[in-house]
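Handout, page 2. Input:
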Amino acid sequence: MFLRRHRKVVDEVSYDYWTLCESHRTANGPRQRVVATLGKLDSTDLADDAGWDDLGALLEGRTREKRARQSELGESPAAATQRAAQWEVANVAALRVERVRDFGEVWLGLALWHRLGLGKLIDSLVEPGKEEVSWADIASVLTVGRFCAQRSELGIAEHWYEWTALEDITGVPLSKINDDRLYRGLDVLGAHKDKLCGHLMERYRDWFGVRFEFMIYDVTSTFFEGQAEGNEKAARGYSRDQRSDCKQVCIGLVCSPEGLPLSFEVFAGNRNDVTTVEQIVTDMERKYGQAQRVWVMDRGMVSEKNIAFLRGRNARYLVGTPKAQLRDFEKALLDHQGWHSVQSGLEARLIAHPDGKGEEQYVLCRSTARAEKERAMLARQTEKLCAELQKIDAALREKPSVKTGEVERRIGRWLGKYPAAAKVIQATVERDPSGAACALTITSHVEKGRWKDQAHGAYLLRTNCTETDPAKLWRWYIQLTQAEAAFRTAKSDLKLRPIYHQKTGRVEAHILVCFLALAMWRVLEQWMNGKGLGTCARKLIAEISTIKSMDIVLPVRRGETQTELTIRTVARPDRHVAELLARLDLELPMRNRILAAPTVSGTAQTVQM
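Output:
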């Protein structure tokens, strides 16, 4: 779901209103529809006396309480603003703007960081030493940088931090942010991974009522730039990023059905997904107790050893099965009785375990849209494969007596490129009396083609849950898409890939920072959903990122002396952005910071306006 803004112009006056929309699949492809018309979003009075000195309170959402206490004392925000008024004689014609910085996106990231209580937690975990900047502040810079899609710690230190208003918000000078300090911050943060994950789970429970009855588990990979010779887990393996030329590590992520990340583990890049299940389940039970949770996993995690392991721990599971196992249920698939409609274009039915023991049951599903997509994909592959095989046949007939081995290698390359079509298309090399290849015979496996057509859009789930409603079991399994969406967010929006670090510990700490940024992203989506703003965090961040901070330099005259007055301020957001902030209970600093011109002694003064 996402929020869409509409603009209407009547008599040269612009009006904005909002609708809540969602994407859904149809037989003609993905479409969007309006869920609710929100009209003009309610906005609160943004004229507050909070300023740069109240940044901590603003980030933690404590300004409303402060205003309430002021009202009790009989001083209104308007009175406080009037009391702080300061007038100067200025040369408006010479006014200029300097030091424009990105404010909105980093402000939002820091607000999420503080409201999750991560800074206070790190302060309590790390013993203070001789460091000039606290490790909690360094961790916040690292995580907010990743939240804002910075690719590397080096990029944060060399460019990004200077371009943002983080120096003004956090109070950490630019001179104190360098790559060495950020790398050491990774080392400190990586030592407290379990405490951070446990803290996030407590926040999820308190804020969103997450009960952790379902655990969604999936695995992805991310690759390295460089040789990664100092990383013992870096290896070449199956790359989800289509970068088989690079070494990689695999990342196993556990999340809730809402997509909130709970924990993660980093595995060797050549490790098979199916071998990671026991470690993940054992670690989660050791850290958070051995409750009878339902583990939801895709078919890449399925093996009889893993199923026996989960049963032995009295764990419930709902897993996908290999496509080939559908053949055992061909009769049930073709039977028109016993199907339950789950949603438009999708049916499911419950099937007992083949051995009749009753310890397990299967859910057979078939989707009309998925079947059409698979048929179209197979048709395209078949057409392309046949075209290439016909080219080989034409070349052989034009110039016969080619070595059979050479022809078979050419055929093998094309069969490997179109594996789905290769299962139903057969190419036979014809030989002349001397044994050389002279032509090609292309045939189709009729039986395999018929089964392929019947199995299009069908898939099989396996579970030991006692639930008897196939629609409910299907909905449990479809929650696995939340883990896939989390990986897409981490890789695309948070720029997890590629990794530039070489040491094993640094790599795992770097992934921990990505994990924390992902948690902030998902919490923002839940926050938006609770406020009726949909769940499209990407759109909200893009809107808020338009807010900038800047220095307004104003020539002034004080008596016979002319000087320049520098005012640091945050640009007032557009009306629709201000309304979004108001819905999220986020407040920007409204008072300006005046950076006075140097005095006779050469020092500068900073006052609030």
